[in-house]
């Protein structure tokens, strides 16, 4: 069950990140389509706690430096190793497609690092993007690292929504695709979550973390390259893990 108040805080921070300047209570309410009363309550609460302030008197609210400091400390406590970022950049350069490092987040695969393709038509993803774990190559490369009991527990939380006609709609379908991915050495998805997207991914268990390495692009360019990309991503990941173990 989603807690609306918690999501509102995140949505507010994303609003300020995109806006890049202070906003009045009315501007926030109008832009986010929130009731004035609940907007006032949230802004008042965050201001009283020191997380919002008014840089120019009545010129509007903006996140205070305390939020940046919290984010900085969190990032320093559990950073993504630079060598994983380089791996993603290396694969992106080799495939020409957007490549990412992902981790489990509830029933989703969360993008921790993204090396974006330079192609004009490309898969646009950013840090913080999520895909359903059961309906994406990045997610199934994570699921493959779960025990059967862990997977069954996660499946009970999944709403097997049909995002497209290719989406797996039950546990048996997901397990079959997991088994197929394990047999060929990489996981793939074609138009399962996004109708025009192809992805290939491999499991990347590194430094005690369950991660996946995924490269993805438009069907028009990548559909005939799935096996080529899958083998490339697998080789790069295996080489990376072998060198890390030395």
Kindly describe this structure:
With about 250 residues, the chain is α+β, with helices and mostly antiparallel strands. The protein has two domains: about 5-75, Arc Repressor Mutant, subunit A; about 80-245, Beta-Lactamase, CATH 3.30.450. Helices cover about 50% and strands about 20% of the residues. It has helices spanning about 5-20, 25-30, 35-50, 65-75, 80-95, 135-145, 150-155, 170-185, 220, 225-245; strands at about 50-55, 60-65, 100-105, 110-115, 130, 185-190, 195-205, 210-220. The strands form two sheets. A six-stranded antiparallel β-sheet has the order 5-4-3-8-7-6, with helices on both faces. Strand 7 and strand 8 form a beta hairpin. The termini are far apart. The mean pLDDT is about 90.
Output the helix-strand order.
HHHEEHHEEEHHHEEEHH
Per DSSP, the total helix count is: 10
Termini separation comes to 44 Å
Proportion of helical residues: 40-55%
| Average pLDDT taken over every residue | 92
Total discrete domains: 2
CATH class of the largest domain: Alpha Beta
**Can you summarize the main beta sheet?**
6 strands, antiparallel
- The proportion of strand residues reads 15-25%
* Neighbour order of strands in the largest sheet: 5-4-3-8-7-6
Q: Which architecture name of the largest domain does CATH use?
A: 2-Layer Sandwich
What overall geometry do the principal axes of the alpha carbons give?
globular
Give the C-alpha Rg. Answer: 20 Å
Uncertain stretches of 5 or more adjacent residues: none
Structural class: alpha+beta
Q: How many individual β-strands?
A: 8
CATH level-4 homologous superfamily of the largest domain: GAF domain
CATH topology (level 3) name of the largest domain: Beta-Lactamase
């Amino acid at each position: 069950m989603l807690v609306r108040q918690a999501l509102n805080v995140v949505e507010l921070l994303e609003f300020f990140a995109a806006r890049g300047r202070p906003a009045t209570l009315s501007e926030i309410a109008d832009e986010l389509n929130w009731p004035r009363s609940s907007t006032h309550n949230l802004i008042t609460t965050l201001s009283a706690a020191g997380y919002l302030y008014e840089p120019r008197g009545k010129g509007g609210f903006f996140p205070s430096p305390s939020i940046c400091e919290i984010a900085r400390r969190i990032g320093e406590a559990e950073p993504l190793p630079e060598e994983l970022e380089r791996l993603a950049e290396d694969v992106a350069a080799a495939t020409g497609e957007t490549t990412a490092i992902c981790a489990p987040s509830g029933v989703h695969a969360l993008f921790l690092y993204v090396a974006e393709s330079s192609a004009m038509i490309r898969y646009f993803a950013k840090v913080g993007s999520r895909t359903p774990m059961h309906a994406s190559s990045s997610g199934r490369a994570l699921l493959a690292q779960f025990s059967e009991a862990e997977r069954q527990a996660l499946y009970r939380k999944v709403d097997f929504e049909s995002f497209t006609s290719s989406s797996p709609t039950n546990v048996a379908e997901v397990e079959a695709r997991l088994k197929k991915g394990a047999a060929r050495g990489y996981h793939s998805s074609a138009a399962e979550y996004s109708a025009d997207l192809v992805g290939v991914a491999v499991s990347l268990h590194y430094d005690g973390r369950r991660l996946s390495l995924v490269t993805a692009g438009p069907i028009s360019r990548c559909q005939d390259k799935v096996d080529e990309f899958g083998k490339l991503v697998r080789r790069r990941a295996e080489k990376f893990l072998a060198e890390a173990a030395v």
